[in-house]
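Possible regression after last week's pipeline update?

I re-ran a chain I had predicted before the update to compare outputs. Posting the input and the new output here so someone can diff against the archived version. Not blocking, just want to make sure nothing changed silently.
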Amino acid sequence: MIKSLLNKGIFLLILLTGFFSNAQIQKPVEWETEVKKLSETEYQLVFNAFIEENWHLYSQNLPEGGALPTVFIFENSGDQYELVGETKESEPITEYDEVFEMDLSFFAFTATFTQNIKVTDPTIGSINAKVEYQACDDKACIFDSKKLRFIINQENVAPEGNTTAATKDQDSIKAADKNVENIDPEPKESFWGIFLVAFLSGFAALLTPCVFPMIPMTVSFFTKQSKSRAAGIRNAIFYGVSIVVIYVLLGTLVTVIFGADALNALSTNVWFNLVFFILLVIFAFSFMGAFEIVLPSSWGTKIDSKADKGGLVGIFFMALALAIVSFSCTGPIVGTLLVQAASKGGMAPVIGMLGFSLAIALPFALFAAFPGWLNTLPRSGGWLNTVKVTLGFLELALAFKFLSNADLVLQLHILEREVFLAIWITIFGLLAFYLFGKIRLPHDSPENHISVGRLITGLIVMSFTIYLIPGLWGAPLKIISGFPPPLQYSESPYGVGNSQGGFSENQELPEHAEYGPHDIVSFHDYEDGLAYAKEKDLPVLIDFTGHACVNCRKMEERVWSEPQVLEILKNDIVLVSLYVDDKRKLPEEDQYVSETTGKEIETIGNKWSDFQISRYEANAQPYYILVDHNEEELLPPSAYEPSAEEFYEWLKEGIEKFKNQNSDVINKKSESIFN
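New output (post-update):
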């Protein structure tokens, strides 16, 4: 019995822990205000935002259809004071958002907004303002507002240049010594991803005609010219280190010239994407043998003369000579890596060049240490050109991603999803035929047969090509998610030949309902959804969401679309989606002041946000709650859950509990009738 009680206690503790970990009021942004005196009648109102790590606050200037911008509302402006110009903001970070398919600007760690005013009434004592904003991290978004007050007291206001806090957000203000610069918090995972891709690209560069034959030649030189085996190993290691230094210096040079933030901004620029589309096409044709990209021959001659001096200096110039001589093969790969790294910003170009150069340098050091391994290397031949041409096809496919980015930003609808996929199907189809030996390009050696490795690679490429074909008819193609334009950006968003979104024209929607994501019947009013759930004897899934909630869209696109989850959402529950950022005004008689937060509830979004906070003690989205007809929670809430299987199990568990409750109710009614 003790063991049973202990197990129940542990289970209860797990439930409570899960509940409180999900249900909590999050305040990722805190606000502080300042007043600066510019002249006898002019002042500057300063809003300082302190943002928690891993969260970001959106800019005031966002395109329509994206996230919610930060908005400042000044009460009674025009009576005792006038606004001078627009509200200015510190420099934001701008990145392309694949969910909203547009450039979005945001702030990390801190942000500063300023508004100049001209006082027209000398007796003014204070100015009240309100800020409405959206903040997100990689799992949730919150939509919030804050009332702030500026004390206009001429005795206490400092002249411009000094900073005097007039009033602060009293909800646990952040430490004042935070770094005021907008730092781009680049996740460590993305740097590791860049490093891994660059490292693999370096190995691909090794297998090109310009580099591979250099391995035995260079290693033999060090082992023969060195007085001892140890000296040969030491010289080869220094040669490898020199290669790393040369390429890392290149990445550092790119970062210093353009600047870390400038690279990040360039990656979302239309002209940047167009220029690199053209560059990658040139690189691709070069790899295919149309022409060679080489540096001036005089450079190689001068470097070779320096290498003849011997010693460590000579070895360094030998490494530099390798970089120059092999440029026709490594240049396009290095250029592509720098382009990709530029889209990440920060130190990404340096990290990329470190990974690439390590892959190039390691074989020289290892084969120098173990010369016997040279006998295991395959002989040079036509297969090296096959590797080079294959890389050319991959470069060409990648080029159209940059062209697609430019088209998406401009919303030209030239390179829509079907066109993009048709181009990729053509590119990878031709690559498969090339690998099967049906197509020959310049510099290819005549062959009577193809190797087993080439055949296997061709089969993989052909399988991938066939996989792409259903995408023309609306298949999601999750393996390449993020490369082609999204499903909505196409001629037929619901698939070719299906303009109605996949549901029957004769199907009638319930009253007050509409079709949501994936044609799921959805209610946008809680009472309407609850009434329909009672009518159909189904549980209610309350979906606290937002029109501009990035993570909500991710859940809908990547989790709700899974067949087992979609089946439940369409048939076994009643979905009630409550948008906390709905800006439509409530009728005056329905407006009120929240008993929980003290805020004025004026819009539909305010109403559902207050509903979430007051009843469930949470304010982040997405946020999912399964309730029965008595509005009781069937199990602890769920938030952002990228695993479709986990979300499916959560839904399934709640539905089973709802069915068991109904069975208990029926049994009790039957017992009362018979008794």
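Follow-up from reviewer: compared with the archived run. The longest strand covers residues 126-136. Marking as no regression found.
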